[in-house]
Write a structure and sequence with these properties.
The chain is built from 4 helices and 41 strands. The chain has 630 residues and is mainly β. It is extended and about 140 Å long.
Length: 630
């Protein structure tokens, strides 16, 4: 395997000061998207075209061993694109309205630099038409001219009235399916010149009206002429209808034509052949597809002015014969599908996914292989893998064959040393996958044509284990009954992307919650009886993992525990009341003792002994401690 490292110095965009350069051009012209860059030394220049939020690669120019290889991929721009490698500018010839959109230039260096160009292509605006009506004013005896200007509407078309060079009214509408109408009332016009102007950003058309003429005569003549023409046309139409209604029934139906459907960006990878049958419509004509002798689809339309079209998607073309049949009540025509010409019978087929987008889910840290289901791809095919995280388009793998040598480039730093391409099947292996690798992966295989497959990958972390706790009780909340007391428990778990938290009774799910508000923790309440013999489990799960915690009713919700809580509460209340009573009694005794002590001290002070005599210590003792000698 050989990895090419692109080293370049890219000049800055010198012209546009905005991130997106906006251009407006007239349909049919040649436009050049000037980058303002000179001396580009990049080995790879890529132009992408975005139409209705879809990125389609149009031009890819790279240098391999000194040789410049430039590929133009789009059928829409066939032979109309020219790339200037010195400046990166892109020239588009014969541009049309369908080419409108955003063009993005990517120049690959040590990093990818990009410039965007918003191109709006307009058709030339139609010439406006002025109609005139004269109304007599009996009060003022003045003539009032009613002028009505109209034009076919289109993108950014405006319609305006001018008197001389002054604009006096204007109108525009975003509904391009309706004509634009702008009225103007003129009373006794003088020598002023009135002009109606239709314009869009790239063109304009003018119709001028000289107000000095006698408009009402012209208007009356036009009305009479139109009415006469309508009468003649109605008569002719009635005659033709009666004449052709008898002939059409005997007109043989045309032979149906089978062609290829135009390829779209998002194709079903299982469909390897998509023929489109069409026929000129007529009275009672229907168009049908047959596989062998069994009709598999049919269409008809009462609008005989438009062709009938009937598509068919063939999965894995085999030995069956597919036939398109156009028929009316008196005739039929048949055309058979040429499988070899219309179908790529040698291309590998995607055998697994039946959807347009194959959806994959994987556990973080694992190795995943994005299997295409293809095999036997021709050896000179080019493989391109893109990664789309959050609406970004990042090329991660480019593998091609140049002069018999396989050259495979891995571009993304995020996937450094973690990607492995299988050129036999186009499958891509990613090692040590992480949640940041989630997104859409697109494979493009370029052989004689470009085919595309899409894979949506979601990577999840292992879910956290749930834990069960009993809700706190603030008072007697249990009622004794024959079925036992009720117990409230709460299951909790750390929240993760795509995770659900569920309560199960056996295999039956009771309730469930998910991380809809992106909180840090998920919780789920459950109420059971403490005598319940059923098995309850709390489960966390995401698409790739799950964890379970079993509820132990005996341990968490036993009746004794509840009774102990109630009794403990009652005992605490009794002890608190007794302590308060004891404290009150103690305070009362201390106050009484203090008062008694103060009174006794005052009495002793008034009965002191004479100074010449010593007091007998025994006399100072209370009477209760005196001993009677007798």
């Amino acid at each position: 395997m050989r990895v090419w490292i692109l080293i370049c110095a890219v000049a800055l965009l010198c012209s546009a000061g905005e991130e997106v350069v906006r251009l407006q051009e007239l349909e049919g012209n040649t436009v050049t998207l000037h980058t303002g860059i000179t001396g580009v030394q990049s080995d790879q220049i890529m132009w992408l075209y975005e139409s209705e939020n879809v990125d389609l690669r149009r031009v890819d120019s790279l240098v391999i061993r000194g040789e410049i290889i430039t590929d133009s991929y789009s059928e829409r721009f066939r032979d109309r694109l020219q790339l200037d490698r010195n400046s990166g500018s892109l020239t588009i010839t014969n541009i049309n309205r369908e080419d409108s959109g955003v063009y993005m230039l990517q120049i690959s260096c040590e990093s990818v630099s990009a410039w965007s160009f918003s191109v709006n292509v307009y058709a030339p605006v139609s010439k406006p038409i002025i109609k005139i009506k004269l109304e007599k004013c009996s009060v003022s005896r003045r003539d009032l001219y009613f002028l009505l200007c109209s034009v076919e509407n289109g993108k950014d078309v405006s319609l305006s009235w001018y008197e001389e060079k002054e604009r006096i009214s204007s109108i525009s509408s975003s509904d391009s399916s309706e004509r634009l109408y702008l009225p103007l009332n003129v009373t006794n016009p003088n020598n002023s010149t009135y002009t109606c102007v239709a314009a869009n950003p790239v063109s304009n058309q003018t119709t001028q009206l000289n107000s000095t003429g006698h408009y009402h005569h012209t208007a009356e003549f036009v009305v009479r002429l139109v009415l006469s023409a309508m009468v003649v046309l109605a008569t002719i139409s009635i005659l033709l209808y009666h004449f052709t209604s008898k002939i059409v029934m005997n007109t043989p139906v045309s032979k149906p034509i089978i062609g290829k459907q135009t390829e779209k960006r998002s194709v079903n990878p299982r469909v390897s052949c998509s023929p489109l049958c069409s026929v000129e419509n007529g009275k009672d004509v229907n168009l049908s597809w047959y596989e062998e002798k069994e009709r598999i689809s049919s269409i008809s339309s009462s609008d005989s002015s438009a062709h009938l079209y009937l598509p068919l998607n063939i999965i894995n073309p085999n030995n069956s014969t597919y036939t398109c049949v156009a028929a009316n009540p008196v005739s039929n025509q048949t055309t058979q599908v040429n499988i070899t010409e219309l179908c790529d019978v040698n291309a590998g087929l995607l055998c697994s996914a039946g959807e347009e987008v194959v959806r994959l889910q994987e556990l973080e840290g694992n190795t995943i292989t994005i299997h295409t289901g293809l095999k036997g791809i021709q050896s000179d095919a080019q493989f391109l893998w893109f990664h789309h995280p959050e609406n970004l388009d990042i090329k991660i793998v480019n593998s091609l064959v140049n002069d018999g040598e396989i050259i495979t480039d891995y571009y993304s730093e995020r996937f450094r040393d973690r990607l492995q391409l299988n050129r036999t099947s186009g499958s891509l292996t990613i090692t040590n996958i992480s949640r940041e690798d989630s997104g859409v992966y697109i494979l493009q295989i370029i052989t004689g044509r470009s085919s595309e497959w899409m894979f949506s990958l979601n990577v999840y972390a292992t879910v956290s284990s749930p834990y069960i706790t009993r809700l706190s009780v603030r008072g007697p909340s249990f009622s004794a009954s024959t079925s036992g007391s009720r117990c409230s428990v709460l299951c909790s778990a750390e929240s993760q992307r795509g995770m659900t938290l569920s309560w199960f009774k056996g295999r039956e799910i009771l309730n469930q919650t998910s991380d809809s508000d992106h909180s840090d923790k998920l919780t789920l309440h459950l109420e059971v009886s403490d005598e319940d013999q059923d098995i309850y489990n709390c489960v966390t799960a995401n698409p790739v993992s799950n964890r379970t915690s079993k509820l132990n009713i005996t341990e968490i919700c036993s009746h004794d525990n509840g009774a102990t809580e109630v009794c403990g509460l009652t005992e605490s209340m009794i002890r608190l009341a007794f302590s308060v009573l004891l404290a009150v009694v103690t305070v009362v005794l201390l106050i009484d003792h203090s008062r008694t002590y103060s009174e006794g001290r005052n009495t002793t002070t008034h009965k002191q002994c004479p100074p010449s005599q010593e007091a007998d210590p025994l006399e100072t003792l209370p009477a209760a401690f005196m001993v009677d000698d007798s």
